[in-house]
Write a structure and sequence with these properties.
Elements lengths: L3 E6 L3 E7 L2 H7 L6 E3 L2 H8 L8 E5 L1 H11 L4 E4 L6 H12 L3 E2 L12 E7 L5 E6 L13 H5 L1 E7 L6 H16 L3 E5 L3 H6 L1 H8 L3 E7 H8 L4 H8 L3 E7 L5 E4 L4 E4 L12 H13 L5 H16 L8 H11 L2
Parallel strand pairs: 1-5, 1-9, 2-7, 3-8, 5-6, 9-10, 10-11, 11-12
Antiparallel strand pairs: 2-4, 7-8, 12-13, 13-14
Protein name: Sugar/nucleoside kinase (Ribokinase family)
Family: Belongs to the carbohydrate kinase PfkB family.
GO molecular function: kinase activity
């Protein structure tokens, strides 16, 4: 009996989310709609012009959001990450604990440095724009991977954003090797189109012969496979993933269960903030398949959850919302 449904590895960032208008981007030289890595000075300059009192602060990072979702639906999850011994680092640890997620962070063993932060700017059209200073999480490496947690998990979940550094790539490959050698299934998310556009070769090294479960959106699937339409892209993905999910935004999702394709219908919603929709889909889906649900049922759960996320501000559900979604799935 495995202790955890899933162990995730990825960046540890404190998400600071706030509403802006398009003029904010013009005034501050921010490119709308993208995730941009910035240095500390640049991020501090933006912090100085936002309304901090109205900003929403949560522990985050792509895989962290997914791992928290697993916990909120009732699963057991573990997160392997890196924060610094500073105010934001302690906030991250406490928020992760409140979310019911076990982790590798120990207050007495934290290193000096700066915890990563992600400024999430949301406009009225519900589009998210992120400026991220990775801080100490950019040094995440093999020594931060908890082998015991992986061995005690049904799935290892790897965040694609780690591919941007050599030490991150090595940690991804090391964790994947541990899982594969011990019968633990491996799930990977591409995380962002830029990760497969600019880091395709190292990402291919991590994918290797195959992964058990791959998460991608339409754009990522086509960039990675080099195809210009989704039908061809999904056939190519069969060569590198035993199972996969292609999210399609307002059009729902497409799941390959190893034999057939399953179309997942979207749930009608009014989008307010798209931040975290893909992370929520992945987390809810992994919860489903590790807790007795079929691929189709897990896709339905994930679709419900992600539609709820985009209808509100922030990348995380409230606990009662997760329970309500489960009740809708299993009336």
């Amino acid at each position: 009996m495995k202790k955890y449904d899933v162990t995730g590895i990825g960046n540890a960032l404190v998400d600071i989310e706030f509403k802006v208008n398009d003029q904010f981007f013009t005034d501050n030289g921010v490119e709308k709609g993208l995730m941009t890595l910035v240095d500390e000075d640049r991020q501090n300059a933006l912090m100085n012009v936002i309304n901090a009192e109205e900003a929403k602060k949560q522990c985050g990072g792509s895989a962290a959001n997914s791992i928290i979702a697993v916990s909120q639906f009732g699963g057991n999850s573990y997160y392997s990450c890196k924060v610094a011994n500073d105010e934001m680092g302690h906030f991250f640890m406490n928020d992760m604990k409140a979310a019911g997620v076990a982790h590798n962070l120990n207050e007495q063993q934290l290193e000096a440095g700066i915890t990563g932060k992600c400024l999430v700017m949301v406009t009225e059209d519900a589009e998210r724009t992120m400026n991220t200073f990775l801080g100490i999480t950019s040094t995440y490496s093999i020594k931060d991977v908890n082998e015991s947690a992986i061995l005690n998990s049904k799935y290892l979940y790897i965040e694609g954003y780690l591919i941007t550094s050599e030490n991150g790539k090595e940690a991804m490959m090391h964790a994947k090797k541990i899982a594969e050698e011990n019968g633990v299934k491996v799930a990977l998310t591409f995380s962002d189109p830029a990760m497969v556009k600019y880091f395709k070769e190292p990402m291919s090294e991590v994918v290797g012969a195959s992964v058990d479960l791959l998460f991608a959106n339409e754009e990522e699937a086509m960039i990675y496979t080099g195809k210009d339409n989704l039908l061809e892209a999904r056939e190519e993905l069969k060569k590198v993933a035993k199972h996969f999910v292609i999210t399609q935004g307002k059009n729902g999702a497409m799941i390959f269960d190893g034999d057939t394709f399953i179309d997942i219908e979207p749930y009608e919603t009014t989008a307010v903030d798209t931040n975290g929709a893909g992370d929520m889909f992945a987390g809810a889906f992994i919860y489903g398949i590790t807790n007795g649900h079929s691929y189709a049922s897990s896709g339905k759960l994930a679709s419900m959850a992600s539609s709820k996320i985009v209808s509100q501000f922030g990348p995380r559900l409230e606990w009662h919302q997760a329970k309500e979604i489960l009740n809708r799935l299993n009336p």
